[in-house]
Design a protein that fits this description.
single chain, alpha/beta, 7-stranded mixed β-sheet, 12 strands, globular, binds 4'-deoxy-4'-aminopyridoxal-5'-phosphate
Length: 354
């Protein structure tokens, strides 16, 4: 820390992203990226756009907003595109939380939420998941907080139903409920249709997972016009050109190829079910994940040890040292070959450890 660093950030603990090793080739099952390349239409559109980057990108992201609005059945001005969904989440903490309206989220969820709260200098409260690692929606009823729920939750992958989300919305008429749908395309119910009835709903989404664009950084928020206006105020106060021209074009290209996205999601779901079944047969216990990862522990093998031994064998998964989940590993679903390599490595490891 330099002697110039502002006091207001001295206590800030930044988010620790998953490892992105460059020194050796791993089978990367640690950051929930897609195992598939982006749609060829996204790639072609991005390279075409690269020819014109002497110009600023469109701050209104009009083409993208229109394409996404058509897909979701909402109006273009009910959407805001951002630099990954991390950015819209950060904006939401800034826009909708303060001392009189703290944030609330589960104790086990996306690790960036407490960081966003601290960065925006807003108080927050965490509510423990139930013993089975599920969220009890009633815990979020009417507490005078801005609610942040990842649905499906991370790193458990466990979803709430749309009806359960609606219960939370109904019980918080005077507070915003942010539903982070980063993983929704792998088998959970989107809450976007509830937007018509609830002006307190903000749904966030990303192109990082189902649309294979993690490195392009494209996310979005969907909500009623006035909520989106508030987020735009923050965007235009910080970075009006937050989405670059290549990414914007790639996003439009990806949306023009929904069949490709749907096909990849189906494959990931199939590979997830295949992997879950094999892991259970090996004695692992898994949450009922509807995301592009599984969350698994073994009653007789230490979670950290499994993580280390997989890494030695060239397979990276995500291990969290947090209480209650330190015996689990979060394993991103890759191709069938990736999953077979994982299962073979786990078989060897269990022969060593059991
Ligand atoms: N929400 C959740 C629950 C996530 O796991 C992630 C990705 N790590 C994000 C949001 C942010 O993703 P991105 O910024 O790539 O859109």
């Amino acid at each position: 820390m330099s002697r110039f660093f502002s006091d207001k950030f001295k206590a800030l603990t930044p988010y620790t992203p998953g490892e992105q090793p460059r020194e050796r080739r791993y089978i990367k099952l640690n950051t929930n990226e897609s195992p598939f390349p982006p749609s060829p239409r996204a790639v072609a559109a991005a390279s075409e756009a690269a020819k014109n980057v002497q110009l600023y990108s469109d701050p209104t992201a009009r083409a993208l907003n229109e394409a996404m609005a058509a897909l979701l059945g909402v109006e273009a001005d009910e959407i805001l595109f951002t630099n990954g969904s991390d950015e819209v989440l950060n904006f939401a903490f800034g826009a909708f939380c303060d001392d009189t309206c703290p944030a609330v989220f589960p104790d086990i969820t996306y690790g960036f939420y407490p960081v966003f709260a601290e960065y925006n200098r807003v108080p927050y409260k965490v509510i423990p998941l139930k013993d089975d690692l599920t969220i009890d929606p009633a815990d979020y009823y009417g507490g005078g907080h801005t609610v942040f729920i990842a649905n499906p939750n991370a790193p458990t992958g466990i979803p709430l139903t749309r009806a359960q989300i609606e219960g939370i919305l109904k019980a918080n008429p005077d507070n915003v409920v942010v539903v982070d749908e980063a993983y929704v395309d792998f088998g959970a119910e989107s809450s976007v249709p509830l937007m018509r009835e609830y002006d307190n709903l903000l749904v966030t989404g990303t192109f990082s997972k189902s649309r294979s664009m993690a490195g392009a950084r494209l996310g979005f928020g969907v909500g009623c016009k006035t909520l989106i206006q508030d987020l735009n105020t923050i965007k235009y106060a910080t970075n009006p050109y937050n989405v670059n021209a290549m990414t914007m074009a790639a996003g439009v290209g990806a949306l023009a190829d929904e069949a490709y996205t749907r096909r990849n999601c189906r494959t990931v779901v199939q590979n997830r079910e295949y992997t879950a079944e094999k892991l259970r047969a090996m004695g692992f216990e898994l949450t009922d994940s509807r995301a592009n990862f599984v969350f698994a522990r073994h009653p007789k093998m230490d979670g950290g040890e499994i993580y280390r031994r997989l890494k030695e064998r060239g397979i990276l998964v995500r291990h969290f040292d947090a209480p209650r989940i330190d015996q689990f590993n979060r394993i991103t679903i890759g191709t069938q070959d990736d999953m077979d390599a994982l299962l073979a490595a786990l078989k060897t490891i269990s022969e060593e450890l059991l």
